[in-house]
Amino acid sequence: MKKLTFGVMxxxxxxxxxxxxxxxxKKEPTINGNWTLASYSGGVAGFKHRKADVNxxxxxxITADGVYRQYNNGAIATQGSYTVLKNFPFGxxxxxxxxxxxxxxxxxxxxxxxxxxxxxxxxxxxxxxxxTLEYTRSNMR
Length: 141
Description:
With 141 residues, the chain is mainly β. The chain has one helix at residues 2-16, and strands spanning 33-41, 49-51, 58-62, 67-72, 75-89, 95-101, 104-112, 118-122, 132-138. A hairpin with a 2-residue loop joins strand 4 and strand 5 (75-89).
């Protein structure tokens, strides 16, 4: 009887010590938040990477409830409702996630998460300069 009681207690203890599923605790990176234009790359004359000018200071505020705002030196330059279109067909062979604000596709959008999150927005590939704007997450606005 002691062995049976000990076995039941051991099972109860094992059930109480269930491992926490850590993958459920990971947050999926999101484009929501505040962003500051840090640099840009591309161009008609060839590939170049440049640090963004501080004048005008360009920032983005992208909210979880679907609002996109672009500020130039603190003043709203663009505002509207946004969606991210998954696997958008930019051409016959190119698909990528697209950032749509109101009725306009701003371009391909991607996010690199890490010590410094970086948001990349590349205008539609058929645009001549295909300049990629690189934003870093910020605490502004």
